Amino acid sequence: MTNVTSERTADQPTPDQSxxxxxxxxxxxxxxxxxxxxxxxxxQSVVPQLASDCEILIVDNASTDNTPQLVAGFAAADxxxxxxxxxxxxxxxARNAALTxxxxxxxxxxxxxxxxxxxxxxxxxxxxxxxxxxxxxVVGGVVICDYEKPPPKWYAAAAIGLDLGxxxxxxxxxxxxxxxxxxxxxxxxxxxxxxxDRFGHKGATVSAHEESDLNDRLQKxxxxxxxxxxxxxxxxxSAERLRFKWQLRNQFSQGRSSALLRLRRMxxxxxxxxxxxxxxxxxxxxxxxxVMLALGSFPFQNGxxxxxxxxxxxxxxxxxxxxxxxxxxxxxxx
Length: 334
What we know:
Layout: E1 26-32, H1 36-46, E2 54-60, H2 67-77, E3 81-85, H3 91-101, E4 106-110, E5 114-116, H4 120-129, E6 136-147, E7 161-162, E8 169-171, E9 181-185, H5 186-191, H6 210-220, E10 224-237, H7 244-265, H8 270-297, H9 304-333
Parallel strand pairs: 1-2, 1-4, 2-3, 6-10
Antiparallel strand pairs: 4-9, 5-10, 6-7, 6-9, 8-10
């Protein structure tokens, strides 16, 4: 990777150096809610990597545990760390608060249950300080899943992380990167409307695709999305997420957000609603097929095929539910 020779490669400051000495180039934004036990590890993984042109912004999204006391201690101990409390629930809301309050030219989002590898921030700094194109607005990196306990056998074929190759490259697809390790050019993200808070987690409600939706709008505005393999993190996967009930609930919510994203991508008009009606009417048939597949395959492959068939069924139901919600909303406003 090309070394950065500009002033952005200045030596790392000591913690007592004023964070206001210069406008940061990078803001590491950590949005958090009720994960104090994880948050400390996330912050500690980034602090040693901070250079004079970097800061950490922690957005506390209405936590009810000891997160407020913890983050206050972080800010008091290191002037490069600032804290904002966002009372409105929602990950997209918290991320929008980070985009608004960050001082950096780029905002790198790191999940509160993730740990950055030692050269993570350097990889982003070098890539973004000497970009290969002027229109780069989104960059993401490797995500390594760190399981709290070994995954069950039926889960073995599920995602083990994100790795799109060993070379930095432009991505044609707006949905390829994961939001736990992603950087945005701040002015571009604000220009296209930031994150849509209809997407993303809201407390116990699991949802997704807030990054895909924002990336869609950035691509339409002429910006580029890039892959940076040297920016690596480890992302914790709790035992709770390995439970089948949680997976079903997650797939249902994923289906809802997928339907909303698909409708957003389609031009308004007859074809859009013919598609919606067709998918809604086909949902019972598709669910029935997957239920029969689950029943027939349950004794084989440690239940893996059956489990994934039932998860597909939950996703289809979520998709159909969101199509119905959108139709009822349009009916109500007319």
